[in-house]
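re: ur question from the group chat, yeah i did fold both. here u go
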Amino acid sequence: MEKTLIQPSIAALISSAIAIIYYRRKSLDLYGALVLFLSMTIHFAVGYRFGAMLLIFFCTSSKLIEDGEEKKRRMEAGLKDGRPNSWKRVLLNSGVAAVLSVAVGCLTGWEDKCLDSNESVLVTRLIGGIIGHYACCNGDSWSSEIGILSSERPWLITTSRRVRRGTNGGVTKIGHLSASAAGIVVGQTFALVGLHTTSCFDRMGMKELLVVPVSMVAGLLGSMIRSLLGATLQFSGFCVVRKKVVEKPGPTVRRISGCNYLGNDAVNLISILLTTLITSTACVYIF
C-alpha cells in the first residue's frame, strides 16, 4: 500500500514541476507539457530509475537544442520542425519506454527489480529495453546537436564523402563521442539512482555497473542507426536560393543524399525501436 500511494504521488509532483517549468520557458506547448507530465509520472511511478533516465534525457537535450538553435538556423531550413515542443515529439521520445515501464510494473507487482536474468528473463529484457531507448534518444540528440556545431566538416556515413553540415546521415568524430557520452550519462543515472532506491547493488554487486558500458554502446549504436537511415531513406538537398540544407526535393534543390521515403519522426522511431530491441536482448546475456 505504501508503494501504491507514496511513489505515484511523488511521481506526479516531480512530473508536474518539470512540465510547468518547461511550459513557462516555452520549450513545450500545452499539449507537449501534458504528455510529458503523463509519461514522466508513469516512469517515476513504476521506478525512480526509469523516471530519472527520462528526466536526464529531456533536460540535457532541451538545453543543447536551445543553446545551438541560433547557429543551426543559419545552416538548416527545417530547424523549427526539430524543436521538441509538441506532444508528438514528446510522445515519440518517451512513448515506447512508457509502455515498457507499465509492462515492468504489471509483471513485478510495481516493485523495483534488478537486471537479473536468473530471476526473470522477461523483466530483464524489458528493463534493458528502457535503458536502450533512452541511450538511443540521448545519443541521437547529443550527437546531432553537438556534432553539427563542431568545426569538423561531416562525412556521409555510407560513403565517407564530405557533406554539408545538417545533412541527414552526416557524422563527425565529435558526434560519435557525444553519442557515447550521452549513453554513459543515461547508464550512470540508472545506476546511481538505483544505488539509493533499490537493493540491486547488494544483490548483484559490481555487475550492476555493467549497465554503464552497455548504455554507452547503445547510445553510439542508436546514433549510427539513425545516421544510416538518414543517409539512405531520408532526403537531403541543398537549396541554391536559401543557401541551406533542406529535407524536401524541389526545382531549386540539389540532391546531396538519400531518398524521400521517410521523415525525421519515422527515422527516429525506427532507430529507437531497433536500439531498444538490440539492447534488451544484450542485457539478457550480460546480466
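okk and heres the other one u asked abt
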Amino acid sequence: MERRNVTRTPQEVLALCREKDVRAVDLRFTDLMGKQHHLTVPASQLNEHAFADGFGFDGSSVRGWQSIDESDMLLVPLPDSAWIDPFTSLSTLVLACAIQDPITREDYARDPRMIAKRAENYLQSTGIADSIRIGPEAEFFIFDDVQFDQRENSGFYHIDSGESWWNRGRGESPNLGHKIRHGLGNMCSPPNDQTGDLRGEMMQTLIDCGIDVECHHHEIGSAGQAEIDIGYGGLLETADNLMTYKYIVKNVAKRHGKSVTFMPKPVMGDSGNGLHVHFSLWKNEDPLFAGKGYAGLSDVGLYAIGGVLKHAPALLAITNPTTNSYKRLVPGFKAPVNLTYSQRNRSAACRIPMVSPSPRAKRIEFRCPDPSCNPYLAFSAILMAAIDGIQNKIHPGDPIDKDLYDLPPEMADRVAQTPRSLEEAMQALEQDCDFLLRGDVFTEDLLLSWIEYKRQHEILPMQMRPHPYEFCLYYDS
C-alpha cells in the first residue's frame, strides 16, 4: 500500500518512480463543479524542477475558470499526494496539483483545493480549534445497463439492475428469483445482495491506494445501491480522498462491465444517494464537541449545529448543487428535509451519533449533502457555517427526538424545511453568503460565478425542456 497524504520530498517521489518502474505521471485537478481532470506526461518529464516550475495547460477549457485571453495556467505537482494508479496498463504515478498563474505564480482563487486549504487556515486563525476531522459516507448505485438521451424531439432514460425487484419476471436463463424487494436493500445478504464481491474489490483497491476503509454494505435501494465508508481525516485530505474514492469505485465497476453513479436521485420512488458528513473540531488533540449537554455535546458543539442549521438553505446551494439533488430532498426515504437536530434520529438534518460513549467519538452528522457536490467546496462551506455558529453563539433551539415525518401538523409547520429546488437554494446563497467570505475562504467573484453558471447551464436548460411525465399528464389536454 502506498501511503497517502504523508510528507514527501520531490526526491522521494522520484525514488518511488524508480522503485515502481513508473512510465507515466498523471497530473490531476478538480474543476469548480467537482469534475476531475488529468494531464499525462512521460515519467522522464518529472524531475525536481517540475515540482517548482509546473506544467502548462489551457485554463479556458475548464468550466468556470479562465477566459480565452488569459488561458495559460500551471499545474504544479504536490509530492505529498503521490500514489500508483491501479487501472492503467502503463505503470502510472498520480499526483494532485496546485493551480497557479504562470506570470504572478499566485495560487488560483478558483482552485477548489485552494479554497479547502484556506478554510483550514481560517479555522486555525480564529483560535477556536486547530483542526477539523471529517468522515464522509458516500452512497452510490451500481447499474448493469444505463441508456439516456435528450434531443429537441425526444428524451428518455433507462436504467437496469439485475438484483432489483422489477426484474422478478424477466426471462433470464434461469431467473433464480433472488431479487431485492422495494426499499429492503439495506445490509441485505447474498444471494439477494449481488454486488458484495464487487464492493469488496472496491474496498481492497481503496486500501491498496492508501485510503482507510471502515466498512461496506448494500444500501436501502433495491437497484444495486451501495455504501463504502472511508476513514476520518482533515478537510483537504478527506476531500482529496473522496475524489479518489469516486475514481476508484467507478473504475472497478467499469472493469466488471458495471456502471456506478453518484447522481442524487437516479431511481424514482427509491432512496437517493446521500453524502452524510460527520465532522468534529479539535484543539491540542482535545475533542471540542464533547461535553455534558444534550446528547453529550458541549456548548461549542451545539453552537456549531446552530450555525449549520441557520445557514443550511445557503449551504445547500453548494452541498446539493444539482437540480436532481432536490428530487432526493423530499419527505420519506430517510431524506433529511427538516432543519432541526436530534440524537440518533436520521430524519433530522443534523444528527448526533450515539454509537460510542468516548468523547473522541463525539461528532455532528450533517445529513443533507449529496455526492454530486464538489467536496472541497462542500466541506469548506460546512466548516464556515459551524465557525459562524460558534463565534456568534447561535443556539439551535430544542432538539426534536421524534419521527419528523410523522409530526402533528401544528408542530410540523414550525420546523424549517430545506429548499425545494436548486433555484431556491441559489436565492438563499445570494441573500446569505457573508459567512463564506470571511478570511477570504470563498470570494465574492467565485460565488457570483458559481450562481451564474448553475442558472445558465443547469437551471434554465431544465426549465426549457418538456419532461417525459408531462406528456403523461398533459398530452391529451
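fwiw on the second one: The mean pLDDT is 93. The chain is about 30% helix and 20% strand. idk if thats what u expected
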